[in-house]
Amino acid sequence: MKLHHAPPSVIRLANRLGRVKDWMIALVAVSVLRIAALFPADASINFVDRLARRIGPRTFRHKLALANLERAYPEKSADERERIARDMWGNMARLAVEYVFLDQIFDFDPEQPDKGRIEVEGREIFSQLRAAQKPFIVFTAHTGNFELLPIAAATYDLHTTVLFRPPNNPYVAERILAARRGRMGNLVPSQAGAAIALARKLEDGEGVGMLVDQKFHRGPKTTFFGLPVISNRLLPKLARQFDCDVYPARCIRLPGGRFRLSIEPALELPRNADGQIDVVATCQVLNDKVETWVREYPGQWQWFHDRWNIKSKL
Fold first, then answer.
1. Do the beta carbons of residue 173 and residue 244 sit within 8 Å?
2. Are residues 50 and 182 in the same domain?
3. Which of 13, 43, 101, 206 is least crowded, fewest Cβ atoms below 10 Å from its Cβ?
4. Angle between helices 78-98 and 60-72 (to 10 degrees)
């Protein structure tokens, strides 16, 4: 019997059980983070990295990651793809625990840019954006610790409004949102009304940040790694509406628990015969940029996302 054909009492029970499951998962996750906080940052982060490389391959998501890697890198051997997937699990574990140690990890000082574990490429662009006081859009992908990018912008007094997609687990989402607030500028959940909220910020001459490598069910058909995907048209539509510059930015993990945050010059976006930004062609430009990043550091991207809609086939 399908759930949507079940009696109301069964549906209510299923919903309650689902909430209990979400709460228990969140409790375990929070407990792990609290235990991690009792130890030095690098020791905790390195430990969960090693642990995730063992546990991650035992999950269904690992199967999805390997299937995605096989589609993206048919020329690589099974061992090479397995190594990339394990690197991904290590990166994901680091990302989770780094929430606990953000104050220690982010030690970048614009007055002393060559000290600390954070280095920033494109510092002059941050300064130019602050001086220009015009609307702009920065996009990134799920690479490295992408959460550090809006913190870097804030050090240059660029308090961007960031579009984010909350986790499906509401209790985990609440914890993550609490960790992000205060350090990462304004946050707008990816839900009804988000486009209007972002448009208002651009109209006020402020900046907007968003991830562009997530799975979407509706939108223009494009390609990623030469494979068909559906892309989100929100960024190109906002860029066309406000005719504002669009900047690529990413985080790269470096050896020794260090990071390189990079903001690149504004993209030259394709335009149609009327001189307006071409929405579909721009979606493809964004995909191509993210693909170059992923190809450079494949183990730092989240391969367990169902970007090519193949989960149901596994």
1. no
2. no
3. 43
4. 120
